[in-house]
Specification:
The chain is an alpha+beta fold. Helix content is about 50%, strand content about 15%.
Length: about 450
């Protein structure tokens, strides 16, 4: 990666619909000049605090403050080593703070930190907050969840189906703070490419929004709009936890600099068919053609011709069945983490589909109906403008534009939900304003 490659980034944190305080924190530290870039690069961080109320909030805040500061001080170390040392320092700081106060004992936080530097992308990771990369039409999870489910998968003693069906998702096996020492996973450096998109997030997002949806939002929308849509989706699906998203898009390489060569690294089932498959298909096709034509040249031996044609059809059928099985198996494997460090642990498609845009359209329609029926306070002029544009784009199959405008319309409606919640919270806190009996006017009304 070059200093001249501009980055576009955005960050958003939200309390969610069911929490009283936000225990998530994030940090963004962008190099201000070429020299700082050459030594330290750009740093991005997400931390999800654990502990109750102010305890988790304090732990994540310490991580978000300590790691960037310590990383910048370790100028003599390689970025990967400096980043790991900074996370270890943050763990010691949180642990020491917890030991000072009985109420803060065993407070902790997850932490995922990304550094984009001349060597590429480096990630330091503890907990179940995640780092993703969206490249071309794929989204790849670059971090291993330190959770009970994923650790059981690593052991291989239970089937994935048993683990995901019977074991709780949110049990964390590793975090910063509870213990004096911590094991930090360092991933990378991964080579960066122009237009790569990196996303860091807390589990308040990944517990409710699918990898495919995350990939589509990051790929098709500017970082700020993608953050907003992902947070809105998580909230509209219940919002049981705090939600934090940081998105970074790597810019193009200027023409005057050496251009990177694109390498095809598609490992999906669709990309695994080599010459053997082409030869098999060719031979099966030849058998069908020759067998079908045989009776026209030698009618007495038409049985042999029919046999050849049947063999060719059987071969094509067998190839198709094998392809379908491989494709299904590849999709099953993509949904499960791989156990090889240094490679993406899970991948999914990030291609925009009409089905996803239609899903957003249906969501928007349901929200709009509720807003009208319940009398939400909505900026209807702005909503109607983007809503009509979204419908027109969808009808004309301009799916990217439709996605963008439906996301904007949904955000306007979600703003009405937030305002309604604030009003209800105020009523619960201070009590409803007394209303005069029916038929009487209030003093203010006279």
């Amino acid at each position: 990666m070059f200093w001249e490659q501009k980055i576009e980034y955005a960050a958003l944190t939200d309390i969610g619909f069911r929490r009283r305080n936000n225990q998530d924190s994030y940090a963004v530290q962008v190099a201000s000049d070429r020299d700082r870039w050459a030594h330290r690069g750009h740093l991005f961080l997400v931390a999800d605090g654990m502990g109750g109320h102010a305890v988790g909030e304090l732990a994540s805040k310490i991580a978000a403050d300590t790691i960037p500061h310590t990383y910048q001080k370790l100028q003599a170390e390689d970025p990967a080593e400096a980043l790991k040392s900074a996370v270890v320092t943050a763990n010691a700081t949180i642990n020491a703070r917890g030991e000072m106060n009985r109420d803060f004992t065993r407070m902790g936080t997850t932490c995922t930190t990304l550094v984009l530097c001349p060597k590429g992308a480096v990630i330091a990771h503890v907990g179940d907050s995640r780092a993703y990369r969206v490249r071309a039409d794929r989204i790849e999870q670059l971090t291993f969840d330190h959770s009970l489910q994923w650790e059981l998968l690593r052991q291989g003693k239970m089937s994935p189906e048993e683990i995901f069906r019977n074991e709780p998702r949110n049990v964390i096996t590793r975090s910063l703070g509870p213990h004096p020492a911590v094991q930090v996973d360092v991933e990378g450096p991964y080579a960066t490419r122009p237009h790569d998109v990196y996303l860091l997030c807390s589990d308040g997002l990944t517990g409710l929004v699918r990898d495919e949806e995350i990939g589509i939002a990051c790929r098709e929308l500017p970082p700020a709009e993608a953050c907003r849509l992902l947070v809105d989706l998580a909230n509209l699906r219940g919002g049981p936890d705090n939600i934090t998203v940081v998105i970074v898009r790597v810019g193009a390489i200027p023409p005057e600099l050496p251009q990177e060569t694109e390498i095809d690294d598609d490992n999906s089932a669709e990309g695994q068919f080599g010459w053997s498959w082409l030869i098999a298909v060719f031979l099966a096709g030849i058998l069908i053609i020759v067998g079908h034509a045989w009776p026209y040249f030698n009618f007495e031996r038409r049985i042999e011709g029919l046999s050849m044609e049947a063999l060719g059809v059987t071969g094509v059928g067998a190839l198709m069945l094998t392809w379908l099985r491989m494709r299904r198996r590849a999709r099953e494997l993509a949904a499960l983490p791989q156990m090889t460090p240094g490679t993406p642990y899970r991948t999914a498609s990030a291609k925009l589909t009409p089905e996803f845009v239609t899903e957003l359209a249906n969501l928007e329609n349901n929200l709009q109906r509720s807003a009208v029926e319940e009398g939400w306070s909505i900026e209807w002029t702005e909503h109607n403008r983007v809503f009509e544009a979204a419908k027109t784009a969808l009808a004309e199959r301009r799916y990217t534009e439709s996605l963008r405008d439906f996301a904007r319309a949904i955000h306007v409606l979600v703003g009405g939900i937030h305002l309604l919640r604030k009003q209800r919270d105020q009523i619960l806190r201070w009590g409803a304003k007394p209303q005069p009996p029916k038929g009487e006017e209030s003093v203010e009304g006279k």
